[in-house]
Amino acid sequence: MLTVMIVDDDAERGQQLVKAFRSQGYQVADRVESAFALPDAVAKSAPDVIIIGADSPDRDMLEHLCVATRDCPRPVVMFTEDQASESIRAALKAGVSAYIVDGLESARLQPILEVARIRFEEHQVLVDAANKANRSQQERDLIAAAKQRLMVDQNMSETDAYHAMRRTAMAENRRLVEIAEAIMQAIPPMA
Length: 191
Description:
- The longest helix has 46 residues, at 109-154.
- The protein has a five-stranded parallel beta sheet with strand order 2-1-3-4-5, sandwiched between helices.
- Helix 4 links the parallel strand 4 and strand 5.
- It is elongated, with a radius of gyration of 24 Å.
- It has seven helices and five strands; from the N terminus they run βαβαβαβαβααα.
- The chain has two domains: 3-104, Response regulator (Rossmann fold), CATH 3.40.50; 130-186, Arc Repressor Mutant, subunit A (Orthogonal Bundle).
- The termini are far apart.
- With 191 residues, it is of the alpha/beta class.
């Protein structure tokens, strides 16, 4: 079964969450009473899923959630009373995978966590693809800048500069972007 971390500043509701999850066979790794402690608690306990109980998600809670899940991404389920569109949007933007209004019923926990886990995994695929595309664009930009410096410094054509970089990369068994980085460090920018 999954290990969950309960985050709730309301002691009574927090205990209800702990009890509900334990009754369904989930292991509760930790119960955090303040969102301020969330980043350290997530790093320490490494739960599979973060469960948040809140009357309404406030800015501080969402900021601490972002910090906590930036380096250790996790599915997050929020149980709340707030059904305002702005609150839902802010929570989802902060990384909440499932936003449940008035829905703390023990029998529903397993499907709620399953939806949150699947939605989180699909979101991570999109984030990874966007990061990969961003890295690729940055590498292309770096190669273009290095080629430009080489053209100016060595009075080469664009084709000759590219082929020189490519030959060096092949001869040294390095990636073209590594050669571009070396060129950018070796050849100062022209004023």
